């Protein structure tokens, strides 16, 4: 590519398998931004993109894709097909909105959007508020404990279960399935992680196929019944598309909400002046939620394939490459945010254009639901537990891409 410069390599401080890096990746991001706009990372064979403007532009650039199979075979693209042993995870993941490209993505999203509407989310608001209030009430009555296990995890699982019409007795299955499947989204997942994802994909898919069959004969007011019924000029969702959509709604929404809740509270406890301000002025909650999503985003990296040769800051990134869009770095880019390393709940939500939910055609369909759950959860704590405090510094889970703590001990 004429005029393209030699490829810079990533800073040695960028080490996604290091516990210290996972606990605080932001100094490494600062180095990456200062050193250039595209950095080759040898351990994963990816190009790291750390700047806000580049991440935002590449999310919208149709020369990149979450998949390449709508244009190339694996051989044509110079990549190996996923191992046969990764089925049914590969099919489950490949038919979800997150990994589809146009025209398949446009078709499935149009159909799903007819069932999963803004009105659907609005109608859930009283249920979400009630569930959040009940969880915090019980947590307070028991004297506190692990906020992750007692509040952050149960709320989104309960909400999605209510949406899907999953019987209460079956709901404990959802979180382990979600955790196992999302383990495959980490960098260079182990054989054990792959095996767990395959088992979870098989079990969850089988469960949902039975649920879909039951709703076909006895439809209700739940989302699965709506997905079955939706059509557009005679076009309908296939069973696999429905299964993949439901799994994505659980996995993406659940992981983001859980980690934003726990890491968000950790951030507030580490910034007591901001927590005092929020407690004194709870009307700032909407702004605070957006700042929490920006300041320590739950999804640190979003990967895309390069379908046609591109340049980023004068560096050639050829077709067949994979770029790693660093959301966590983009959300701390001083070219976009004033004093980005400062946690400030007075940043107006309307001007806080973070990239936590992505951009372009893959912008998170569940973002309104995530915001509803976060507002309900934080609001319930502010009202019912204004004196909550951190009892111990948590350990970070080893995963970097979907980043969170292993527990959050809170008391009074």
Question: Concise description?
Answer:
The chain is 50% helix and 8% strand.
Layout of SSEs?
Layout: H1 19-23, H2 26-35, E1 39-41, E2 46-49, H3 52-60, E3 64-65, H4 74-77, H5 89-94, H6 104-115, H7 118-141, E4 145-146, H8 147-152, H9 154-164, H10 174-182, H11 191-217, H12 223-229, H13 239-270, H14 272-280, H15 285-295, E5 301-306, E6 310-312, E7 315-317, E8 322-326, H16 327-330, H17 367-384, E9 389-390, E10 409-411
Parallel strand pairs: 2-8
Antiparallel strand pairs: 1-2, 3-5, 4-10, 5-8, 6-7, 9-10
Low-confidence stretches: 1-6
Instruction: State the fourth-level CATH superfamily.
Output: Cytochrome P450
Structural class label? alpha+beta
Mean pLDDT: 94
How many distinct domains?
A: 1
Q: And the CATH topology?
A: Cytochrome p450
Tell me the helix content: 40-55%
CATH architecture: Orthogonal Bundle
CATH class: Mainly Alpha
Major sheet: size, sense and barrel closure? 5 strands, mixed
